[in-house]
Amino acid sequence: MPPVEKTRIPAWCAAHIVDATVVPPTIRRSERADEDEEDGRTDVRRRMVVKLGKPTRKEKFLLLIALAGACCLAFIIRLFSVLRFETMIHEYDPYFNFRSTEMMVENGVFPFHNWFDAKSWYPLGRGVGSSVYPGLMWTAGSIYHFLRAFQFKVDVRQVCVFIGPLFSAFSVLATYALTWEVSKGNNGAALFASVFIACVPGYISRSVAGSYDNESIAIFCMILTFALWMRALRTGSMASATTAALAYLYMVSSWGGYIFVTNLIPLHVLGLILTKRFTYRCYVAYSTYYVIGTLLSMQISFVNFKPTESADHMPALGIFGLIQLLTFYNYLKTKVSSENLWTLIGCGVAGAIGLVVVGATLTGIVASGSLSILSDGERFLLIPLDSTNDSTRSESPSKPDWSPCDGLVSLAQRLTFEFGGLEHTEDSSTCQASFSTYSGIQSACNSANKIGHLSGRLAFLFSSKGAIPIIASVAEHQPTSWAHYYYDLHLLLLLFPLGVYRCYTNFHEGTLFAMMYGLTTLYFTRIMVRIVLVLAPAACVLGGLALSGHYYAFLPNLTSSSEEEKKEKDVTEKKKDIKKKAEGSYPFKSEIAAVAVFIPVLIVCSFVSHSIYMAREHYSDPTIVLRAGNGKLYDDFREAYKWISENTEENAKVLSWWDYGYHLSSMANRTVYVDGNTWNNTHISTVGQILASDEKTSYEMMRELDVNYVLVIFGGKIGYPGDDINKFIWMIRIAGSTPNGAHISQKQYMTKYGEYRIDSRAPKKMRNSLMYKLCYHRFGQLMTHPRAPLGYDLSQNQEVGDKNIALEHLEEAYTTENWIVRVYRVKPPANKFSG
């Protein structure tokens, strides 16, 4: 009997398919009535399975109106910061991005990529072109030149401020495309997801007007890459895979979080293999995407050869090799009998092992000049053939620098000595052969050592234990609390598990990707609250699928008043008993369905209201201007930076904690020692040692670094909780994390009961530290509250322990109106020959 030919449903029809039932588009409602009588299915349910015919112009128009409304909502909801304050840049990192964009717009792309910034990380400096992801600068610069070409009088600052809201609107369209691909054309789910992504607080937090950071465009790039990947997987087209690779290039150039995209797509391919859904379309799509995407990503200077050296990229390479072997195996099955297939595979494996041994031997012969053979029966003097890059290893002194490849080197050494006969013979050929084999193995293992370590932040995602303090100190790297989940996801927190269940019950390659995307990001948010930003689009997709499934389940039960519906109801009246049994009828069906349809509408309205509240009250306040609970504004930061730019020398060097380095170099235009790039843990540790040591020791270190001014942030007068005293405990930990700062211990700055205090019970080490003296200098005579004693810190809720602080080597240069920013001048050394 010939096989039944499966009918291919076009994309316009697949949009209305709810289950896996395939119905030829030639069948009409009248023809379905007879089949319903046989299988017990209702007309109403079957009409919800397939809605025949192409979408009308009216439906298309309404869909475009809905998408346009979602885009407008995404843009407008992010403008509270501009409406309530002014057109300004927020946070810390965006100021460096803004400064870099200005440099690129004024001088061009190539000078920007060759730019060496001597005003940061003094005296080391920083090669900006080779240490940034330039996609954000490229985007803002391109938009600026485009608008200027059409005679729009815009400033670079204005373009940078509105990048976040603009790309949030683009993310609405990208989310619609991704959900449409994942659900195989479900327009309802795609539209729900678009509305969710427009106003989900987890995404608003990093895309408000003024948040000119990499994430403001990177989330759009990530969603677009996933959507184009799903399209390439559906079509099996090399052209679609190439467009996905181009989107991946944009993602790589925009944000370091591209590692998530790099590993999620291979994970999806692995899932398809394990669930026996791997097809030739998947092979073509992933092979094309991986090769082109990897080659393009290596053109970014900051990435360079990481795709071939870093362990972060190895899963993608491993899956690429796996699908080559799997496809070749499937090809052999069609050409070779099953009896000879495993024999051929065994011969291939043996040949591969032989090639590895020969290659290791030849490599050892070439590199034999690196080792020397000792006479008189002594063993080899083992000298590493290749030094491992220290930047890829853990910087924690308490954690041993070891990888599995070190064990392989030791094993190769022992095998060479035991079986090479080096201790029993002086034959030079035997020595040379054994030496060459060992040398090749060691060379290969040393090269593999570069791959054997994850980057610091990626390793932190799997385990926060043993992480270096500079990573653990960042607020975004703290574990996510339930309150964060609620405030950043709200309704999506409920729809998320329902969406996963929806994907499980309607399992295919698209829903598998949606589940993997959601569950992996949910897992990593337990370690790092910053990943909620990546979780938000996944929650929107799953929420759209869940809400769409809910409406598809209850809408058929609503009573329609159209004439066509009444006629069909009369036709099917004779089959009432059969339908009740198959459908499980129950009383007040239409009323219950109406309630079930109306309640989610109220919940979605509540979600939008919650999102507006979060955008207005929590995510639109710039860190450069502080707002108190009573609405009072504190503009001390800009006041201090303006004073520094106008009253200090142009070549003056200002020392502060790394949080404020970008502010000083961008707004005050002065040289700084550390900033938010945090690429050199030793240099940051040195700054921490200066602030944690006594004044005399700190002065000597500052003279070595040629420090002119010291800036500290103090919130004791107004109760600002983000000041340097609150961060000081992390400065101590970072200062003691390097060998040069091993003498600094956190216990020295705590009471015997383990308390962190600044009052009279504070340890002498704490009260003598430079940070303590600079913050509380002259503070003992200040009244901060009518009912509190003099020198009462409103942030720590303690009375300062030392009220008569005298400085010997520094002098106060400037203190802002509310004492938030305090600037001190480093005195020059006394003239020993004077007098």
Automatic annotation (TrEMBL):
One of its GO terms (molecular function) is dolichyl-diphosphooligosaccharide-protein glycotransferase activity. Keywords: Endoplasmic reticulum, Glycoprotein, Glycosyltransferase, Magnesium, Manganese, Membrane, Metal-binding, Transferase, Transmembrane, Transmembrane helix. Its main location: endoplasmic reticulum. GO terms for cellular component: endoplasmic reticulum membrane. Its cofactor is Mn(2+); Mg(2+). One of its GO terms (biological process) is protein N-linked glycosylation via asparagine. It is a multi-pass membrane protein. Residues 653-711 form the STT3/PglB/AglB core domain. Component of the oligosaccharyltransferase (OST) complex. There are 2 OST complexes, OST-A and OST-B, which contain STT3A or STT3B as catalytic subunit, respectively. OST-A and OST-B contain common core subunits RPN1, RPN2, OST48, OST4, DAD1 and TMEM258, and OST-A contains DC2/OSTC and KRTCAP2/KCP2 specific accessory subunits. OST-A complex assembly occurs through the formation of 3 subcomplexes. Subcomplex 1 contains RPN1 and TMEM258, subcomplex 2 contains the OST-A-specific subunits STT3A, DC2/OSTC, and KCP2 as well as the core subunit OST4, and subcomplex 3 contains RPN2, DAD1, and OST48. This is Dolichyl-diphosphooligosaccharide--protein glycosyltransferase subunit STT3A. It comes from Pristionchus pacificus (Parasitic nematode worm). The lineage of its organism: Eukaryota, Metazoa, Ecdysozoa, Nematoda, Chromadorea.
